[in-house]
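Let us work through a complete example step by step.
Step 1: write down the sequence.
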Amino acid sequence: MTSADYRNDMAVSDKIMGQMSDAYRKIRNTFRFLLGNLYDFDPDMDSLPYEELTLLDRWILFRLHQLIQRVTRAYEESEFHVVYHAISTFCVVDLSSFYLDITKDTLYCGAADGRERRSIQTVLFEAASVLVRLLAPVLSFTTEEIWGYLPQAKEKAISVHLAPLPQVNRDFLDPDLEKLWEGILKLREDVARVLEAARQKKIIGPATEAKVSLYPEDEATFQFLQQVEGELAAIFIVSRVKLHEVWEAAPEGALKAENGLPLQIVVEQASDKKCARCWLYKESVGSFAEHPDICERCHDVVKQCETDETSS
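Step 2: predict the structure and record it as tokens.
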């Protein structure tokens, strides 16, 4: 078994085989999600250059190319259990539990050819292309099946086993980006803690009902948060995030961040109306006579779909 270190005695039991089955299913389901959201993606026409990707998309590429480094070294040293654990952890933790969870809103509700969705699809294609080739030596039949569905893959190699292993792109390994995301992930943990406290007090139900207010205590923290202000609501999976100025005092009941950043956090029930399409609470809901129950973004997407249907 690839998951076990063959240099030591290998145990086999029903429990272990069940764990392997679960791990395989999670990896396969990750690929199903990736491929399912690449059905309308042409890598040559729709891919965005690295400089136009969002900070979140750049970060997952950073993690992906760190994975290439680790797995390539493991293959060279015949440490196949490292290959298994590294890829399994990336699929479950970095992709499914984090990146894909955050980006589902844009993938499902954004404009089909919008730049935000194309940015995510650029990353999904890169991730699928890298992972299928990294797994090919140890998951031969499944990766061959996946290769047949990956856009343009068969044009480059008739079989995944004839395709070269992926190479690290040093441009993606940005230490400044890594440092930035260390702070963002710590902040996300703090916000998740405050959201859970608000949920226990019945202030909110799901996180999408929440409005999060951040009160930085110094200028450096304010400037740090300004870099990602536009992406924070998606990162926290809430309806709205408001970044306050340093001179604004946090209200009574604000909770202090515990993971390094000097700031205070307030979670409130979003006062806006709920969009019937994306389920986020947006100020623009009710602004459109023809679709009074959806937000501005969803209205624009629906309007474009209606225009396309009429013209066809």
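Step 3: interpret the result. The mean pLDDT is 92.
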